[in-house]
Design a protein that fits this description.
- This protein folds into 2 domains: 3-149 and 273-332, Periplasmic binding protein-like II (D-Maltodextrin-Binding Protein, domain 2); 151-271 and 337-363, Periplasmic binding protein-like II (D-Maltodextrin-Binding Protein, domain 2).
- 39% of the residues lie in helices and 16% in strands.
- It contains 14 helices and 11 strands.
- It has helices at 3-16, 21-34, 59-69, 81-89, 102-110, 186-196, 206-219, 231-237, 247-256, 285-295, 298-308, 323-326, 335-338, 351-363; strands spanning 47-53, 72-78, 97-98, 145-157, 180-182, 223-226, 242-246, 260-263, 270-278, 311-312, 342-343.
- Helix 8 runs parallel beside helix 9.
- It binds spermidine (SPD).
- Spermidine is lined by residues 53-56, 101, 188, 246, 249, 270, 272, 274, 344.
- The site of spermidine has 12 residues, from strand 9.
Length: 364
């Protein structure tokens, strides 16, 4: 029973039983102790712990879930897939639902960290675009449900950057010294430097990574900051003129300051998809799947996209979006753009080369 109705009903009982206040006080005390999610049998309340990207949830939707299912949701955020992985490997316990991107799903599966999903409990999976299911990182979607997807490109302030950037090389333009931010994300930053040189963003050859590192080292003096969490605000305030970043975050900045634009450079960049997954260690797997199913309700998914401005993997959600979002090519890029994008993949042992190069870039 939804919490609202449950408490109305208990309120009614309170009025009807003025003669037995002690009994009522006990009943209320039990409920208060149980809090959200307490079943009518007085079971312990359920709190789900959601570990997701920063600025990736829509508060009204979360509140509606809590109201409808009587389960509380506590949200904690990360800024990169590697941060998520490190926290899980470091034994961060207590999370139920996590939101890894594509390649990180494959890594978490390999590490045995994800629970198998029961598709019967997630009927709204039927609303997910067919072409976004069954992707390389989890072909049967045994462990992951597509949630939001997007691209990686350049956000720029057209009042400050002329001509408009067409190439990643603009991020090496000394005229913008101190006005450039890059994602704080090793696969994205190395991926960008590799694509800028015409390479795959999944290159594993040491020489290619060394060359990418040398280019990033040379660029470093121009870079104000490596951040994945506040570059929208840096763009809006004018502190940076060019930001390597994710589509939705830049579009949110553009909504605040119309001179901010988003471009995917001609050399191409990353296409990515973030997924809803349940951790094997979750003690609330059924509730976690209920949350996932809820997030896939078309109107809830539309609410989320209209806030975060990333494309929903949910096909049915699109009709509930305002037209300017549903038809915005920066949110839903056309096939011709998707064709020059590349998915980040698990590079296996070569990740050690990336890790080392990234650490060197950040410390030197
Ligand atoms: N602020 C939310 C950003 C979500 C980005 N997901 C990105 C994945 C990239 N590889």
């Amino acid at each position: 029973m939804p919490m609202g109705k449950m408490s109305q009903k208990i309120g009614g009982n309170v009025r009807a039983r003025r003669a037995v206040p002690l009994l009522i006080a006990c009943a209320l005390a039990v409920l208060a102790a149980c809090g959200p999610g307490a079943s009518e049998q007085g079971k312990k309340p359920v709190t789900l712990h959601l570990f997701t990207w920063s600025d990736y949830t829509e508060e009204t939707a979360v509140k509606e879930f809590e109201r409808r299912f009587g389960v509380k949701v506590v949200t904690d955020t990360f800024g990169s897939n590697e941060e998520l992985l490190a926290k899980l490997q470091g034994g961060a316990s207590g999370y139920d639902v996590v939101v890894p991107s594509d390649y990180m799903v494959s890594i978490l599966i390999k590490q045995g960290l994800l629970a198998e999903l029961d598709h019967v409990k997630i009927p709204n999976l039927a609303h997910v675009y067919q072409h976004l299911k069954g992707l390389y990182y989890d072909p049967p979607n045994t462990y992951s449900v597509p949630y939001l997807w997007g691209t990686t490109g350049i956000g720029y302030n057209a009042d400050l950057v002329t001509p408009p950037p067409k190439s990643w090389q603009t991020l090496w333009d000394a005229r913008y010294k101190g006005k450039i931010s890059l994602l704080n994300d090793e696969r994205e930053v190395f991926g960008m430097a590799l694509r800028a040189a015409g390479e795959s963003l999944n290159a594993t050859q040491p020489a290619k990574l060394e060359a990418a590192k040398a280019r990033l080292m040379a660029q470093k003096a121009l870079v104000k900051t490596y951040t994945s969490e506040n570059y929208d605000q840096l763009l809006v305030s004018g502190e940076v003129a060019l930001a390597h970043g994710w589509s939705g975050t830049i579009l949110r900045a553009a909504a605040e300051r119309p001179s901010i634009k988003y471009v995917i450079p001609k050399e191409g960049g990353t296409i990515w998809q973030d997924n809803l997954c349940v951790l094997k260690s979750s003690k609330h797997q059924d509730d976690a799947m209920t949350l996932i199913n809820f997030m896939l309700e078309p109107q809830i998914a539309a609410l989320t996209t209209s806030k975060v401005m990333y494309a929903s993997a949910n096909e049915e959600a699109r009709q509930f979006l305002p037209k300017e979002m549903a038809q915005n090519p920066a949110i839903y890029p056309p096939e011709s753009v998707v064709a020059r994008l590349e998915w980040i993949k698990d590079v296996g042992e070569a990740i050690k080369l990336y890790d080392r190069a990234w650490t060197e870039l950040k410390v030197k």
